[in-house]
Amino acid sequence: MSLALIPYYPPPMIELGGVVLDSWAALVTLGFILGLEVCRWKGIQSKLDVRDIVDGGVIIVGMGFIVGHFVHVLAYNPQQLDEQGIWALLKLWAGFSSYGGFLGAVLGAVLFLKLLPAWFGPQAKVFQSKGVDSAYARFVMWAGRERDFLKHGDAYVFGFPLGWTLGRLGCFSAHDHVGQRSDFFLAVDFPARLYGGPRHDLGLYEAMWTAVIAATFFALRHRAARPGFFLALWCAMYAPVRLGLDFLRNTDLSGADVRWLHLTPAQWGSVAMALVGAALAVKLWRPAPEPA
Question: Disulfide: which of 24, 82, 122, 284 matches 174 by Cβ 3.0-4.6 Å?
């Protein structure tokens, strides 16, 4: 007898003002809005320019979606290139890899926090000293502002677990990550004719864990910590659990994730994230350098 308590249901559709959204798109959108608001609050608490938090958040999430889709095609579904050609990469709405999204977010953060100030900073100082006021000058002074990478990174990642929780609930609502067969009480009672019976739904499990991370961040919101603390904490809490959860992914259904040396691409991403988090933790553990 199955112990699965969660009934299966088809992915719901939501109509908002004449616009029809599937549950995944609706929850991801809500996650972006609420997550960005939490990032903005953290930025204010950290005395950062709110404009940089909002602008950077949009760039980081945008890059995350673009690179996340590229990785979805190149790492998980390379046959789509043979079937659809370049259109497989251009259909940004058609599939998304979480670790590809993380990689894109890092690239977006480097672009916004490091590269733009390096490229436009000297020119911005010239425009500011001369009082130049034009559309291009305003762009240059926006792009060229100096931004501390770890301070801003902490503000961005602080709101991320809440947004990611809602996004993963969207995955759960759409049953995007069907796992192995199981009688676990949190398994979903999938139709036997389609899935063979109850299975793990990894979108639900990950949403539950990232909700714990979000609650942990909230509990530590007033902690006096060196910049980079929440980045390191995210890596430490997320990567090992995600590594373990991917062992529950199915291998018997059509479209099962590829394996590289017996691990999914996301598991290799988890290993990389854990190493980055460990390196950052070591950096934070060392005494801060004395001011010159």
Answer: 24
pTM of the model: 0.90
- 17's torsion region: left (phi>0), alpha (psi -120 to 50) or beta? left
H helix runs in 48-111, sequence order: 50-71, 79-84, 87-90, 98-110
The reported pLDDT for the residue numbered 288 is: 66
Whole-number Å distance between alpha carbons of 47 and 152: 10
The reported pLDDT for the residue numbered 2 is: 55
Alpha-carbon distance of 128 to 212, in angstroms, equals 45
Q: Give me the residues of the chain with pLDDT under 50, please.
A: none
Tokens coding 253: 């259904």
Q: Where are the domains of the chain?
A: 19-46+153-286, 50-144
- According to DSSP, residue 236 is labeled H
Report whether 254 contacts 207 (CB < 8 A). no
The CA distance from 21 to 27, in Å, is: 10
What are the E-state strand segments in 62-186? 178-181
